[in-house]
Fold these 3 entries.
Entry 1:
Amino acid sequence: MLAQLPPALQKLQLPLRLRLWDGHEFNFGPTPSVTIVVKDPTLVAQFTHPSLDLLGSAFVEGRLELEGSISEAIRVCDELSQALVDDDDYAPPPRVYHDKATDAESISYHYDLSNDFYQLWLDRDMAYSCGYFETGEESLDEAQQAKFRLLCRKLRLKPGEYLLDVGCGWGGLARFAAREYGVKVFGITLSKEQLKLARERVNAEGLQDKVDLQLLDYRDLPQDGRFDKIVSVGMFEHVGHANLREYCEILSRAVREGGLVMNHGITSKHTDGRQVGRGAGDFIDRYVFPNGELPHLSMMTAEISEAGLEVVDVESLRLHYARTLEHWSQRLEQKLDAAAKQVPEQALRIWRLYLAGCAYAFAHGWINIDQILATKPHADGSLELPPTRADIYR
């Protein structure tokens, strides 16, 4: 059996077992915790260069199977890839302009998959973004409620204010802000499935007079300064580097002088925004978030500043997102039979890898997530903010 493997593979010491299509097995270490079952004979030759994109794609396409926990499989496959693949210094991505049709199609691909599928593993409010673990012992529901509260406190929401929620998802934050802080909310999404369920939940809570959710592109927002506060959670990852300036300028024109803008989203490890190496970024682009682009924190703060907003606070929540994704992955793994009834087999394979892989990526610093709070100063430069941020955490 050993002779069938490329020489580079024979020298590895990993907690990995390789089982071939003919039943032959080879252990790369004394106590394998993961087994890769190769179903496609042509795949063995490609194992001399096992990029994360290659391994992930082969699993999605059914060319290989994984035995063992999905999180352990991610860890071991990363070790395999590290041993044999150079972490290529990818060039910065080209700045490709995103039009409305492209963005709508990309959003629909990801978010219109199945509301029932998302409900299997998200919290009760279906917050599809990083939770906030104040002690580390919170349940997923508690962490998402804490995240909503943190966002509202950073925005210093007051009863009667008008809040714009850009990329409102299933409406959890919009309902929370209206219910707990007494604000009026205008939320937008490009996902028809999200909007349908979000409106049902608004009606169920009797918040129709406070929460208005619409299918709308951010480029079609009113830009007359009518909003007191703006929040954008997990949305600007879809904007694209070439569109960031326009995105920030639209938010700047939509908020009144003295108002606040909160941008909460995933950011790149690299200052030029290039993807994570060894094919992980390629896999995400192909199967999970088509046309998604992650800017670095410095790139985003520069665009916010050029748009006439002043950055007043930045907080990284990277380890909070690692824990959130661990919750999501574990919840999905516990409900695989139910999930298989909601989405096609290939989609389920994609999501199993995606959730476990992203938990690993955030834990290891491959990507980050930042809350960037900015304000639109008055003409004389004055701000409507307290001198410290102590009130946020009181």
Entry 2:
Amino acid sequence: MKNLILTISILALSFNFISAQHLHPSEVSSVILNNFQKTFPKARDIEWEIKGNLYEVEFETGIFGDDHKALYTRDGKLVRHEEEIAKSNLPKTVLETIHRYYSSYRVDDVKRISENRKVIYKVELKNYSTEWKVVFDSQGRILQKRED
């Protein structure tokens, strides 16, 4: 049994290594780097990976080191941006929906995700026994929810 668990663990780690390859900035095309630097001039702690046909960059901004993740195509087009935000920066409509349906939960780990000119919000909601990951649109409608 221990050998089976060890084998599965090694395969899982190998798969992660194959599917996402860390890159040195010199391995990222200048078109992508230039577009990234124009869009996020205050980025720091920058880490690049290639995932399939997309370049993923994780970085921080701001005084408190807000986390970001951005995905670029090979020709330098930003296709997705995910950023950590404060609960207070959620739209009023999202806060109202949370209050209406999840009043006994505390809000944790809030992200604003921009993709294809749409913005959605991913929120972790926790109480003493349950945790939900809920995705909202800007109007406060629940697009997806799953128990975590």
Entry 3:
Amino acid sequence: MKTKWLLSSSAVLMGLLGLAGTFIPEEISNILGIDPLPITLILLQIIGGLYLGFAMLNWFTRSALIGGIYNKPVILGNLMHCVVVFFALIRQLAEQFHFIFAILTLVYLGFAVWFTLVMRSNPLSNQSKSLSNT
């Protein structure tokens, strides 16, 4: 299974969300219709920092052997993040539909399924198959 694509794409997505949360929290709160109170802005910046941390973790782990027991904390952390965000977005969509939330819900569902598949895969059997084909 191609984990490099998974970790690279999730790193890019989380990096973009992290940069946005860190540097333009006031604009994000205006787009979402939230009052830009100081507590809201600092929470958006903290969340942006968390996203940037996850992005860096995924980016620097993308070439490592991942799946099964290998790098399990990285996969479980990403899986937990994707599942929790997916359910939070589902709950928000049930209350009020917003196009951005609908797109993010589908993206997070895709990542949750992909991280689940990677967690249940055996990277060594995939590696031996690719070596025998050469």
